[in-house]
Amino acid sequence: MFDNLSQKLTGAFRKLQGRGHLTEENISAALNEVKMALLEADVNFRVVKAFLKSVKIRAVGEEVQSSLTPGQQFIKIVNDELTSLMGEKNVGLTQAETAPTIIMLVGLQGSGKTSSIGKLANYCQNSSSTSYLIPADVYRPAAIDQLIVLANTLNLPFYPSTTQQNPVDIVREGLADAKEKGMDYVMIDTAGRLHIDDELMGELEQIKAAVNPHEIFFVADAMTGQDAVNMAKAFNDRLDISGIILTKMDGDARGGAALSIRAITKKPIKFITIGEKLESLESFHPDRLASRILGMGDMVSLIEKAQSTFNEKEALEMQTKFQRNEFTLEDFQSQLRSMRQMGSIKDLIGMLPGVDSKMLKNANVDEKQMARTDAIISSMTLKERQNHTIINGSRRSRIAKGSGSHVREVNRLLKQFAQMRKMMNKLSKTTNPRKAMQMMQQMMPH
Fold first, then answer.
1. How many CB atoms lie within 10 A of CB 230?
2. For site-directed labelling of 205, which of 115, 167, 339, 377 has its Cα 20 to 30 A away?
3. In the beta sheet, which residues pair with residue 223?
């Protein structure tokens, strides 16, 4: 995310490095580069203008803290203003006083409404809440089928709508069924078009009037940049949306939608999606994203991902295995799968402070190799996974054939695993952070 913008902003900040103090002249030079970076990122011109004005007022009038260099102080100001631009803080889901909380998703066709409902339902399920799904897009049979598949995948109830029904009737009947079942949330998937028209808006207004939703989320494809912002404004003018879900954020190298949409609509971005999986919906935290854009990492999100994936008891057991040199291929496979659940390795590394996006582009991280390693281990018997020393030549041939790989790949994995066990044993005893990092890099599958 935001690779291009991050690189250009980093270049602008270098202009202030080594300066004794911040002056209007050197600040103006840096701000001119910030301006170009934001405009190239497809940020709305009016938003850019207001942002630069706020930064300049603070930067010129602010006393540089004794513990910071002028460059660092300027970055802090830009960070604060970026956070403010995107909404200051995370805004969570509205909770109805009496269940169910009714959530209506609106947006253009292809923006990701239907898949976002599945992700949102999964998100609520993780906090032990129940959801009822209502497919109200009667113009696209595939949308109804997709939502039913998602409901079945998550083992959730849904309203069995058909293309012959009226969308308003579907929503009324679905809501009545959800109340009878005692559901916590009701999520309504509405129709979209390739463009905005009165017929579409009129139908959405009727649905809103029929059920009085507690949340109306506008779902926007982040990769469409300025178009997403314009559409959000149009939907907000007619429906008074309560928040925004930005989809496909992992494919957005510019960032124009995320940086403009809240300022234009005055409505918060509540969630973002960063992948196709049901687990890829995340709460939107403006402060964390601002830090990532400015190359300061996002350790809080990284820790949260780790905590949701790794069990503390399991971590302690694994540490004991490292120390006793009892770590098996079965343990290794379990750890690989947990890491993959956390997301792309490059994305995780990108959350670390001080990681340059240019350096990340050149990083040799082979995500497919992790999948191949998993396949090879899966082709082993339980005994082989628990004791790799019994894997002889004939076993290696069988494992290679079963995993669709070559014997040399099996040999390489076993050799790397044996080396990794030794390193892990040493790693569990080392207290030197730099040495520990070097060891961890050597242990990655390659």
1. 16
2. 115
3. none
Rounded to the nearest integer, the mean pLDDT of the chain is 81
3-class secondary-structure state, position 133: strand
417 pLDDT band, cuts 50/70/90, is confident
Residue 353 clears pLDDT 50, i.e. is over it: no
Dist. CA 123–CA 157, nearest whole Å: 16
Q: Give pLDDT tens digits for 79-105.
A: 889 899 998 888 889 999 999 999 999
AA letter at 302: L
Tokens describing residue 38 = 């934001």
Question: How many Cα neighbours within 13 Å face the side chain of 131?
Answer: 28
C-alpha torsion 428→431→432→436, nearest 10: 20
Query: What pLDDT, in 10s, does the model give residues 141-178?
Result: 899 999 999 999 999 999 999 989 999 999 999 999 99
Reading the block at residue 314, the tokens are: 């399991």
Cα separation, 199 vs 212, whole angstroms: 20
CA 308 distance to own-chain centroid = 14
Q: What are phi and psi of 362, to 5 degrees?
A: -90, 0
Left if phi > 0, otherwise alpha if psi is -120 to 50, otherwise beta: which for 245?
Answer: beta
306 pLDDT above the threshold of 60: no
Q: Is the peptide bond before 100 cis (omega within 30 degrees of 0)?
A: yes
pLDDT (0 to 100) of residue 169: 96
Chain CA centroid to CA 72, Å:
28
Q: What is the DSSP string of 34-57?
A: HHHHHHHTT--HHHHHHHHHHHHH
> What's the pLDDT score for residue 343?
58
Alpha carbon distances (Å) from 49 to 13, 39, 63, 183, 404: 19, 10, 23, 46, 57
Long-range contacts of 44-47 (CB under 8 A, 24+ apart): 44/226, 44/229, 44/256, 44/260, 44/263, 44/264, 46/264, 47/85, 47/259, 47/260, 47/263, 47/264
pLDDT single digits (tens) 356-394 = 555 445 545 556 777 888 899 999 999 999 899 999 999
In sequence order, what DSSP letters do the residues of 338-380 get, joined into one string?
HHHHT--HHHHHHTSTT--HHHHHT----HHHHHHHHHHHHTS
Phi, psi for 220 (deg, rounded to 5):
-125, 140
CA dist 121 → 115, 129, 144, 155 (Å): 10, 9, 16, 11
- What domains can you pick out in the chain, each with its CATH number? 3-85 (1.20.120.140), 101-296 (3.40.50.300), 310-443 (1.10.260.30)
Tell me how far apart the 2 most distant CA atoms of the chain are, in Å: 75
